[in-house]
Structures are given as C-alpha cells and as structure tokens.
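Inverse folding, one chain.
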C-alpha cells in the first residue's frame, strides 16, 4: 500500500511538471512562434498558451518598436569628402513567423543592412546635401530599408542621421566658403540697392524737369532742413547761368572803358 501511494505521488508530480512546462504566459507585446516536431504550426499569444512538451517548441518574439543605433560609418561623398556618419533606426516586427523563419537573426541582419544602406545612399550625395537635406536622406534610407526588410516581416518606421563628423581642415574650408558666400550676397544686395536708388533718382529728376516750380520748392525745403540743424554757415547754390550773365556784363563794361581811354 505504501509503495502504491509513493508511485501515485511520483506520477502526480510528473503530470504537474508536464502541465507546468506546457503552460506559457505571453505578454501583450509578445508572440510565440510554435513548431510541432520541427514544422511551423502557427503563432500564439498574447495570454495563456499551451505548448506540448517534447513535441512542440515555442520561440518568443518581441513586437515592440526597437531602437537601434547604427555605428559610425566612413563615407566618401560624391564630391570626394571623407566623413563619419552615424544614425539611429526605429523598427518593429509585424510578422513574427517570417522574422523567425526567413532570417536567422533579424536584429543582426537589420543592423548590417542599415550600415551598408547608410554608406551607399550617402555616397551618392555631396557634402552640402548631407548637411542641409537630412530629411530627404532620412526618407530615402527608410524607404530602402523598409523595402528590403519586408520579406523578414519587419517594418522600418523611421531613420534619423544623428551626426556628420567632418575633418578639421574641411571645417575651415567650409567656413571660408560660407564667408565668401555671405560677402557675395552682401555685394549683390548693395548693388541692387544702388540700382533701385538710381532708378528713383531718375524718376525724381524727370518730375522736377517737367515742373520747374517743384525745384524751387525742393530748394526751400532743403534750406528749412538746414536751418533746423542750427548751423552757423549756410551755402546757397547759385546757377552757373546767372554768374555767366554777370560776368558777361562786367566784361562788356571793361571793354567799353578801355575803348574810351584809347580814343
């Protein structure tokens, strides 16, 4: 009787152990890919699932968004500038079965693919585009990664280029280029201002030429502005024609006197 009780206890413990190992609990963001005798038989979860020991195997897959840092890559731009670029990618598993069956290690595969894609895409652009058009480059890399990882059941949501490290000598060259560009723009703006001012002055001269009285009013307005500044000296412009008239009369008077003396 005692031996039978011990046997029953052993059998009960074995059954409980089997049941305990068969019951699995999957969290809301987890899925279990089930293989029955080595063959794929479905995806289970979340919640309580049962996996038959020695017959079935379960591979757990995390369905949350994964943040992966892409190490710095040596990139030679289209204009032959050597830079170091690193980035970060955000992706998640959308099909747990393909992520396990189609690729050995989807994390490593995605990381290596991101590194090679980063080098190949940035190598097709100039340094100026890398620095000023990051949004466009991010979209290009994201589209390429998303298309290539679709067969693995992975969705690449976003790619962000974090740093573009440039050699110190190239930084100085870029600074000189930016300074020259600013000087060029300043000269162009100054020339455009001079051209606009000359056009306005030409228009004003035409108006004054059509109405001589306006010139006199402008002259009086200028005198009023000068007097308001409390200047001790005021310079009056005298028309040259008026001076010529006086000089002509003076010359005629001197000639007449000289002639009379001679007579």
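Residues assigned per position:
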């Amino acid at each position: 009787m005692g031996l039978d009780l011990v046997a029953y206890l052993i059998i009960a413990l074995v059954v409980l152990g089997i049941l305990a190992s068969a019951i699995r609990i999957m969290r809301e963001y987890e899925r279990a890919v089930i293989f029955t005798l080595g063959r794929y038989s479905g995806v289970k979860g979340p919640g309580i699932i049962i996996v038959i020991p020695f017959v079935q195997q379960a591979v757990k897959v995390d369905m949350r968004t994964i943040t992966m840092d892409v190490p710095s890559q040596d990139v030679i731009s289209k204009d032959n500038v050597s830079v170091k670029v690193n980035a970060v990618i955000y992706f998640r598993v959308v099909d747990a079965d393909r992520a396990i069956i189609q690729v050995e290690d989807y994390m490593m595969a995605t990381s290596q693919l991101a590194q090679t894609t980063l080098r190949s895409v940035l190598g097709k652009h100039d340094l100026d585009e890398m620095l000023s058009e990051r949004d466009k480059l991010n979209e290009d890399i994201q589209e390429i990664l998303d298309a290539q990882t679709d067969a693995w059941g992975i969705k690449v949501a976003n790619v962000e280029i974090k740093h573009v490290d440039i050699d110190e000598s190239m930084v100085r060259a870029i600074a000189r280029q930016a300074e020259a560009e600013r000087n060029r723009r300043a000269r162009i703006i100054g020339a455009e201002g001079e051209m606009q001012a000359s056009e306005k002055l030409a228009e004003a001269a035409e108006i004054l030429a059509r109405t001589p009285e306006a010139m006199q009013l402008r002259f009086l307005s200028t005198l009023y502005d000068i007097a308001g500044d409390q200047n001790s000296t005021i310079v009056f412009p005298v028309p040259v024609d008026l001076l010529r008239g006086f000089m002509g009369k003076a010359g005629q008077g001197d000639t007449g006197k000289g002639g009379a003396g001679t007579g």
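The first strand starts at residue 23 and ends at 26. Residues 168-210 form the longest helix (43 residues).
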